[in-house]
Design brief:
Layout: H1 20-33, E1 47-51, E2 54-58, H2 67-83, E3 94-99, H3 102-112, E4 121-126, E5 129-135, H4 140-157, H5 162-173, H6 183-194, H7 201-205, H8 215-230, H9 235-243, H10 248-251, H11 255-261, H12 266-274, H13 313-330
Parallel strand pairs: 2-3, 3-5
Antiparallel strand pairs: 1-2, 4-5
Helix pairs in contact: 2-4, 4-5, 5-8, 8-9
The structure holds zinc ion.
Zinc ion (ZN) is lined by residues 146, 150, 166, 169, 300.
Length: 333
């Protein structure tokens, strides 16, 4: 049986914890009347598939080869390839709840998290429990990858600075083996640069609440992660040392001064971003011919994702139609 819904990621930051009494109310409400009109539980109650560090809950039956399961499997592989992630044997699995549709998800949010802005998916953590909630949509793959990345990072490295947590989730939310996967994001960054925007890691590093970050801040966070993982060493070496630094949280260690000592700074990121349109924005090579098709970009926030400026409308419509066709396989849930 699934446990009671727990605190969302945005609520586990300092000063925003729910009081114990409120948590108790949530538990009581869960036990009492958390059902949809048709008498069905708000959340799927039967685990359908266990894959790596994830256990997936969904209504109905889900096969081992269903797209959400494959995408979680591939995410684990990508995070393993890039960051050396391996699920620890004793870790509790990350619970993934996939609700049937937006209506059910809104109902669930209204009941348990009325304080949250509308969004398609979110990750919550309480102690060792890590949970992702989302619903079937054309962006399910992208949403799952983003939120499940937060869950894996939380399990592997504990609490990370907000900008780095979001930058890594943005980096892994797209299918890294697709050569054009990050083209829309690169186009938006080029537009930012043409509008005289410049990276500013000190500013980014000062943010502690998700609500402080706008769409461009998410893109900048992605850019830093892209630079560190794909640029020249010692970028990746410094990132990995920072992620695995055992006293990082206690000492409130920041990454920016460490990067600055290695001459990795705002100007360097600007140069890296300016070169994006001329270099492949992929990090890994395809390892399988049976990979799922593309997903649209997901921005973790209450606002709708921006349209890719360089993508012709007709092509976008074709991509959306393709994604809706793929819903056929998801509906086998
Ligand atoms: Zn996020």
């Amino acid at each position: 049986m699934p446990r009671s819904p727990v605190q969302p990621r945005t609520l586990r930051r300092p000063g925003r914890h729910l009081p114990a009494a409120a948590s108790l109310l949530l538990v009581l409400a869960w036990a009492g009347c958390a059902t949809l009109d048709r008498g069905q539980s708000l959340l799927p109650t039967t685990p359908q598939v266990r894959t790596g560090p994830f256990v997936v809950y969904a209504n109905g039956t889900m096969s081992e080869d269903a797209l959400p399961v494959r995408c979680l499997r591939e995410l684990e592989r990508d995070v393993g390839h890039e960051l050396g992630y391996h699920a620890a044997a004793g870790d509790e699995p990350v619970e993934i709840y996939i609700l049937k549709d937006r209506h059910d998800f809104d109902h669930f949010l209204k009941f348990y998290y009325p304080e949250l802005p509308s969004r398609r998916a979110f990750f919550i953590a309480k102690g060792y429990q890590r949970v992702v909630y989302t619903y079937i949509s054309p962006r399910l793959e992208e949403d799952l990858r983003h939120e499940a990345t937060h869950a894996l990072l939380r399990g592997a490295y504990g609490d990370l600075p907000l900008w780095l947590d979001e930058g890594l989730a943005e980096y892994f939310e797209t299918d890294l083996v697709r050569p054009s996967a990050e083209r829309p994001r690169a186009d938006l960054i080029m537009a930012d640069l043409h509008k005289s925007w410049s990276p500013n890691l000190e500013r980014l590093e000062s943010m502690t609440e998700v609500g402080q970050m706008n769409q461009r801040d998410y893109r900048e966070a992605w850019g830093w992660v892209h630079l560190l993982l794909n640029g020249p060493e010692p970028g990746k070496k410094l990132l990995m040392a920072y992620l695995t630094k055992t006293d990082r949280a206690e000492t409130k260690a920041r990454l920016r001064p460490i990067l600055a000592d290695a001459h990795i700074d705002d100007a360097g990121l600007r140069t890296h971003l300016n070169a994006l349109p001329h270099t492949p924005v992929v990090a890994t090579k395809p390892s399988s011919a049976s990979r799922p098709a593309a997903a649209l970009r997901f921005q973790d926030g209450p606002t709708a994702p921006p349209a890719a400026p360089s993508a012709p409308p007709q092509r976008e419509r074709e991509r959306e139609r393709g994604l809706f066709r793929r819903l056929g396989s998801w509906l086998g849930l």
